[in-house]
Structure formats: structure tokens, C-alpha cells
Amino acid sequence: PKTVSYLGLESDDFAFAEVKSSFPKERRPVYVTGNVSVRRFMSRGEELVWMNKIDLILDARKDRKIIIHAVSYDRARFIYDHSKHRSYMVVHSTYDAMAKIARFRGMSAPAILVSPSVREGFDFPYDDCECQIIAKIPFVDMRPAVIQARRKQDKKYLDYLAIMALIQSCGRGMRAADDMCESFIVDSNVRWLMQRGKEMVPKWFRAAIRQVDVIPPAPRRSRLKAE
To answer: Which of 11, 33, 139, 142 has its CA 20 to 30 A from that of 185?
Structure first.
């Protein structure tokens, strides 16, 4: 049997195969825009540039429902407090998350959900979400002992987790082949992450990535959510 090596693991017991996506890349574009490295300690100027890019995207997509993946509750609150579109925003805490998410689902556009906790396990098909903003790359907390141990065993383990979380985030609003959802990444860390972990990024995801300096015109809206 042939030994398979993947993510620092070598075994005769498994094989790795990449499956193509059945969703057309034109209906799920991933735009990389902005030059701010989003991190814990940012200058005031960096914060303003970052928030301005988020608001520019919101300016151009007022006719649809949007999710901003904020990664942390503190960052979600910062976005809400500093955006000129806060009147359309729904933010939540750990205690009222499900109620606020349900409220967002029931709203008509313009509506913006700012959340750190919907990147996995949630569906927002069709007009439930037609645009997403990845405000920060979802790097994992490195402090837990188990994460430290796995990182020691595999130097690319943290990159793998971040890439998989990013792909999951972009998938929340794209749920069927005839659905449509744009994703905008406004954290410049994505550029080195995609390069350093390029063997871990599925070809179908990379094919949808576009580098843009100017926010492109909004595409024609997808058909309404199925009854």
C-alpha cells in the first residue's frame, strides 16, 4: 500500500482526495480587499481604514441581507459602535444569540447580522444572506494545551484550522447551486495565509478568489428563497 502524507501525517490507512464543488464559482465570488492586518492591537488609523472598507461594502449592498463574521464579541461590538450602518445591524451576546439570529432571519433588507458565532452550523440560503464580510481571519486561540501539543506535532496545524474556518464562513450564505452569495475578506492576513497554506486550500475555493481595490457593482440578486 502507498503511504499518504498530508498535514504532517503519514499513514497507510487513509487516502486524500479533493472533490470538486457543484456550485459555480461565478455565484460564490470571494473578494480580497483592503491592506489592513487585523490583529489585537491596531492603531487608530488602521481601525478607521478597516472600518471604512467595511462601510464601503455595506454602502454598495444596501438592497440585501448581510452577515459580518466578526470572530469575537468585542470586535462585533466595535463594528456596531463605529459603523454608519448601525441602525440596520443586529448584534448579540452569548445569552441572546439564538433570539437575535432568529430576528435577523425575519428581517427584510437592509439587515446586517454582526456575529462571531455563525461561521459553522448555520444555513442562510438565498435572500437570507446574499453578502458576507469576513472582518478578520478566524485564527484559533493558541493558548489551550491541546492546541499547543498539536502545533508542536504539526507546524501547519494552526494554518489548517484557520483556512478551514475561513472556508466554512464563506459557505454560510451559499447553500445550493442556484444560490448566490458574495464574500468579502477585509483582513490582509489572508494573503500570506493562502500562500503559506496553499496546499490546504481546495482548488474550487481558490478559483473563486479575486483581488480587488474597488468594491465591484452588486450582481443581480438571486432568486427568492424556496417556499
So the answer is: 142
Structure confidence at residue 223 (pLDDT): 53
Lowest mean pLDDT among 47-56, 81-90, 196-205: 196-205
Helical segments of the chain, H only: 44-60, 73-82, 97-106, 145-153, 157-170, 189-196, 203-206
| C-beta separation of 113 from 104 below 8 A | yes
> Tell me, what amino acid is at 43?
S
**Which SS3 state, helix, strand or coil, does residue 66 take?**
strand
Report, as an integer, the average pLDDT of 122-143.
Answer: 92
Report yes or no: 135 and 187 within 8 Å, Cβ to Cβ: yes
94: amino acid identity, one letter: T
What is each CA distance from 108 to 55, 63, 89, 127, 146, in whole angstroms?
A: 19, 9, 12, 9, 43
Task: Give the strand pairing for 30-32 and 182-185.
Answer: parallel
Pairwise CA distance, residues 54 & 173, whole Å: 18
Nearest CA among 223, 218, 219 for reference residue 176: 223
Cα dist from 158 to 134, 164, 172, 184, 190, whole Å: 18, 10, 22, 22, 14
